[in-house]
UniProtKB/TrEMBL annotation, chains A, F:
Entries under InterPro entries matching the protein: LysW
Gene that this polypeptide is encoded by: lysW
Protein name (record): Lysine biosynthesis protein LysW
Short name of any one Pfam family annotated for the protein: Zn_ribbon_LysW
UniProtKB/TrEMBL annotation, chains B, C, D, E:
A GO molecular-function annotation: NAD binding
Residue span(s) of domain Semialdehyde dehydrogenase NAD-binding: 2-136
Name the UniProt record assigns to this protein: Putative [LysW]-L-2-aminoadipate/[LysW]-L-glutamate phosphate reductase
Location(s) in or outside the cell: Cytoplasm
EC number: 1.2.1.103, 1.2.1.106
Length: 54, 343, 343, 343, 343, 54
């Protein structure tokens, strides 16, 4: 269990987590990059700014 | 427990029949309709064709544990004695028992026949009023637009981000089932399809509920859009002091983390980033989320429900579950569909 | 029982995740997606945001009791060994194991990689093949248009009203979820909304299934219409000898009276007189009905299903229930909604 | 030329007001409505808010050159003398003067009040009856489903591919404007959205027109689908002798190459390969196309129109143009939109 | 006059082809597309199947009088020299020349390649900038959401009801054609149908145009709803001093009474009481209306346009008409349809 | 002017037509490959079988 740095909720992570993987927070949906695994350290992933058109 | 649905041929009445029939602790023993008396429930609601039940006259009420009234405004206040004679618990979906003060009925409706009963009634919305529901015998399910709005704003009050003096604009978009089964020219498919139609520019009656339960006056405007189920409230909020995203997450997680029927959706990736009716359609879930507009000192709060469920029949069953001490989610397990259209 | 969904990020895969998660006897232990690996299932399917599960790579299959494969045509035949290593029972939603003869794959598809396995597979449609499902270990869910068509016509064969030499025109109307989650220009909202678009005028692959399981060649045409879920087959049938309405009722009641997921709708009053997708949307029900056109010596048979349920994921779970001797309706209790839009 | 529209508040009446108002040679001097008497035309038709005209009583008809009657079946035959007193030319959009034999009215309708006038009337469809329209004084616009069907099949008769003894199944899909402005429960947005609903399984009255003008009995079934404008006919045709694609192109080009309002669409690339209502919505175009199903000795013919235009008001104006020797396309230049939804 | 459309295969480009082709003073000599080079214009736009023109490469521009550029943001600023070499007048539909200050492009977009040209450009919206359009050689059509918003608010500034310091919330609802022809997962029919989806909760780029041309900062939120064409802006306005309905009528009639393409709709009877996209779809009209919410000291202003017309291609042609001294409404006469769906 | 080999209609072609170009017939929509330019010779282009899904 690790805290999401965006919303503070607990993020469930799988066992074989690797540095560099991107996971999303189940509460806020933020994309989180795994910076370290022992202890687990997460940072906001550089978001691909998706253009929803206009 | 035995349950009856008065107004069973209507839109919310049909949903109540469906939910009661599928509920592990309730048994549907009666559904009333004057127009469809003696016809099968499936005649009005094709999804219930397999039910072996016929509509009966609302004048002949069976003795039941719980009676759900899904009748137009004014009917319940008129027949409340008969309802309470027939049932231990009455859950009313109309506006008749939502407001505690008779004066509010004078202002927003056409007065009230039985003002002395208003004090007995409990507002059904569990996120707001859970503590008062156990044992309640007269329960008033909230209005659908009011429910969406209150769920969006409540955490801001609980976390003292709003106090009640601020300016709040609520811009609501609703589907056609809100109007009930009765129809009319503006409700015809040819006229109602594809609209973004201002149908209550100002002065909508649900302002009364929001004002009563949150203690704030709101600028409220409702638009009809092209969906059948769903109410979506966009609240534009201007707090007096600056707030951070962290404050907001704290507020919303604080209010809703343990709620079985509220999901937070605020940004993130994919197609569904903020609350929207499609994501909850057919279910009793509400989705709530927010975004910060620092440049304009504004919060935008989004809230989406299915007006047939969280906005009426689902909320009613949820409250009845709590009133009777049942599992809160009993009979309300359906999570909605994906993909889904304009459900 | 432990269950996995390969192709869990797709449309039918999402429905399988939902059904398995809500099933009393199954536990959803894995959902695969290459594109969304490590993302929550709720990222792709907003109605499943509450699920605490992330997509994993289909190359790392968990050991399970039943594996549902919801992958495009060709994938299952390629990975069938891995699937069978991981699971006792494989239920495949693609066309890969629907037809018993390899030659049919040469004619309608691009051949078959593992023809020797075709004889092991059972067609999932219980109304057609219930007796062979208990204990089956390789089950092929039927195509959605084929399912609608077969359900419409089957009673005419079981009652010897059709023998297989007659002329049958099947005019199908389907929703956009049939095309899966992948999109493309013709599938965009702007181009796809409001259409009646002939998308398979002739030569649709599902002709092979109908021909295989009913023993008749059909004139088959499919139109895309403006709904998301739903397949509706109108069968125009010209029997050799005159039939009466009584014969027809006899045939359809004979075939379907005891079927838990087939409802008959043929005339009667109200808004919903004949089968239509709205009446079954979100549920595993099929509706079937008919009308007699004596002047033209024609029967018209209508059949409506939700392509995501009876036409794929629901049929798959139904078959798995039978394979394992469970209650047939377990996990498939949702009856659909009313009112409902283009769900 | 001065023109009046009786039934100007209805759906086809509104289109006539729009077309007449925009027509270079016509001037709209009167539009009648009993319900909206004295209200502006824009009250009923928001797209005509800029028109400076009020509805008047149909009992007070102005003297005009051409009178368009857009009233329900039965009204024109009752008021035909008044109509002909008021106008030189009467173009009727109802079924009242479409069939030449009184007996057909006995069989398909409720008889006819003025059978002696039937011989004076000309069927409006120019592709079928252009030669008889110049100078006509009583013109009957075709039914929308009949128009779509006839346009699809006509070239097969003109090229002797069909003789009239063959089996033809016509499976029609129509939008909600076909039902007119009056509404009703089945026409409500909540009930009518997203449907594929068999609404005339057998015995539709338009069979009479098709039989009369093509000389063939057809197996005719109509479905309501989720669009407002549009009628799409899929004709499944089984010719006695084999035909080639070249034969078909010859037939369709032969019949329609010089027609100003028929476009062929049969395969090719892109999103819009076959006729569909979206491609013609708002315009007076019909699209017609076909595909060969050699395996089943079948032709599939697709035909799509806007029921408000080519299927009624546009056809009426087109015929009036020919009757008066005007440019055929006068007032009918709008080509439709892209992209467009469920128009 | 000879006209070319660069980006002719896109959504606004297709509308420009249609409008130019139907324009009495323009001749469509070129439409470009890289993807569809050599294909007929009808391949991309089925409503233009009758046009005898093929797409050509944008690198080979014909010499014309007026060139309409309907390309994505950034393309025109890059190719402006080629455009101006080929044409006397360039009308650009992208954002590239809408804002007069290069700094605004740094803030809201990704900077500007040719800032020295910004001073030459005129904003196309005639209701705002008519006086500067005659003789203009570089014209920038406004953004669709900005156009709807500006048209709603402009009279309040012209009548000094607003000064620019007030709080204004703009809640916009738009159709799917706003996203252009390119598609993507969120734009698929299955995901995009029936939505009320917050797609730009805060920080939408059109804020820059509104701020530039009205001199006010606005709280702007855009929702995607289920229509193809249409943008509807609801402006919640809190003026410093009380205003009466008479003041408002004075302001709106003052600004728009003589405008050929603005209609006022504020209350009244019938189905269509306030502005809505359906009432203007397919036409170049804007509808504007308002309601007073005295209790909350609020005005609600509604504004509705067709984003393909008044919001882009129609506005561009309108401005070109003025630039060349033609009749303002030339080529823009189509008034829209009734009934109409989600056009 | 050249005849479409699918439907027989006249196909209008541009002047600088090149061998190998693909054009579509305005009447039947068929994709036609230019085999020769003097005289113009057209053949059905090998169609990309587009799967419209199921
Ligand atoms: N639709 C929504 O989204 C929604 C949301 C929240 C709350 N509500 C409230 O729920 C109530 C029902 O709404 P609805 O949309 O379901 O309406 P509806 O579809 O019009 O149904 C009304 C039902 O009440 C019955 N009824 C009418 N008058 C009656 C009378 N005098 N005595 C007994 N039965 C009577 C009708 O049947 P017969 O006439 O055949 O007896 C019908 O079954 C309303 O108070 C509404 O405000 C609705
Ligand atoms: N849609 C219907 O109505 C319907 C009805 C009956 C039957 N079916 C059949 O059901 C199957 C799935 O259809 P759908 O509509 O759900 O399709 P879809 O939405 O396109 O989903 C396809 C799924 O398969 C996965 N996938 C694709 N290629 C794969 C590969 N090589 N290995 C592993 N996973 C792969 C995809 O995820 P990743 O690419 O991320 O791995 C995705 O999750 C098809 O065979 C279809 O014919 C569909
Ligand atoms: N809708 C279609 O797609 C379509 C296509 C082809 C043909 N048609 C035919 O066109 C006709 C009109 O159809 P619609 O869909 O436009 O119907 P509608 O929308 O119901 O309009 C009917 C109009 O007739 C008027 N009217 C009714 N009874 C009348 C009477 N006794 N005397 C004078 N006026 C009367 C009504 O106005 P007041 O009641 O206010 O006077 C209304 O303006 C019908 O005959 C229909 O079969 C329709
Ligand atoms: N859609 C609206 O409601 C709306 C409203 C107001 C303003 N606008 C603006 O209008 C412009 C067009 O929008 P749209 O919705 O029509 O977009 P669209 O449908 O995506 O069309 C874009 C067109 O530009 C062409 N194109 C793309 N890149 C090009 C390049 N580098 N050089 C030459 N041509 C290029 C494309 O064709 P090829 O790639 O085949 O060459 C296509 O024809 C945009 O700037 C948009 O912001 C749109
Ligand atoms: Zn988080
Ligand atoms: Zn051709």
């Amino acid at each position: 269990m690790t805290e999401c740095i965006e919303c503070g909720a607990d993020v469930t992570l799988h066992d074989d987590l690797e540095v560099g993987e991107i996971v999303d927070c189940a509460t806020c949906g933020a994309e989180l990059e795994v910076l370290g695994t022992d202890p687990v350290e997460l940072d906001t992933a550089p978001e691909l700014e998706e253009d929803w058109g206009e | 427990m035995r349950a009856a649905v008065v107004g069973g041929s209507g839109f919310t009445g049909g949903e109540l029949c469906r939910l009661v029939d599928g509920h592990p602790d309730f048994e549907l023993v009666q559904a009333t309709s004057r127009e469809y008396e003696n016809k099968t429930v499936g005649h009005a609601h094709p999804n219930l064709r397999h039910l072996d039940l016929r509509f009966s006259d609302p004048a002949d009420l069976e003795s039941v544990d719980v009676l759900f009234a899904a009748t137009p405004h004014g009917v319940s206040m008129q027949h409340i004695d008969a309802f309470q004679d027939a049932a231990d618990t009455v859950v009313d979906l109309s506006a008749d028992f939502r407001l505690p003060e008779a004066s509010a009925y004078d202002e927003y409706y056409d007065g009230h026949d039985r003002p002395e009963l208003l004090a007995d009634a409990e507002y059904a919305l569990p996120e707001l009023n859970r503590d008062n529901l156990p044992g309640a015998t007269l329960i008033a399910a909230g209005g659908c637009n009011a429910t969406a709005s209150i769920l969006g704003l409540l955490p801001l009050f609980e976390a003292d981000i709003l106090s009640g003096d601020e300016r709040v604009v609520i811009d609501v978009k609703v589907g056609s089932s809100e109007g009930g089964a009765s129809g009319g020219k503006a409700a015809s498919h040819a006229e109602r399809s594809g609209v973004v139609r201002p149908y209550a520019p100002t002065g909508h009656r649900h302002e009364a509920e929001i004002s009563e339960y949150l203690g704030i006056d709101v600028s409220f405007t409702v638009h009809a859009v092209d969906m059948i189920r769903g109410a979506s409230a966009t609240c534009h909020v201007f707090p007096d002091s600056p707030v951070s995203k962290g404050d907001l997450w704290g507020a919303y997680r604080g209010s809703y983390e343990d709620e079985p029927f509220v999901r937070l959706a605020s940004g993130g990736g994919g197609v569904y980033r903020y609350p929207e009716p499609k994501a909850v359609a057919g279910s009793n879930f509400a989705e709530v989320g927010f975004e910060l507009d620092a440049a304009n000192k504004r919060l935008v709060v989004f809230s989406a429900i299915d007006n047939m469920m969280k906005g009426s029949a689902g909320q009613a069953v949820h409250a009845a579950n709590i009133a009777y001490g049942l599992d809160e989610t009993a009979g309300l397990e359906h999570t909605g569909l994906h993909p889904v259209g304009a459900p």
